[in-house]
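Following up on my earlier thread - several people asked me to post the actual chain instead of describing it. Fair enough. Here it is, all 83 residues.
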Amino acid sequence: MTTRVAVRTAHPQVAQIFSGASRLTTVERLTLAKLLLESILTGEPDDETNWSAMSLDTFQRDWDNAEDAIYDNWRELYGVPTR
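Reply from S.P.:
Thanks for posting it. Predicted structure:
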């Protein structure tokens, strides 16, 4: 896989950061890589937060779709008055 393919398929924020980092010198990129790696290795991963974020993102994509949009106004659809 080439770098261009990896950047195209990366999350937009990652691609933007990579684009900025590509303008750095080799020493600057190595320093940045070292700092990023250290931030991962020394930080305590919070697996629960990571799983929650992924599940919420997936739920949002699944829930917010045109096919189910009719149910967004369920009170009107089923004639249920607001309190």
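Residues 47-78 form one domain. That should answer part of your original question.
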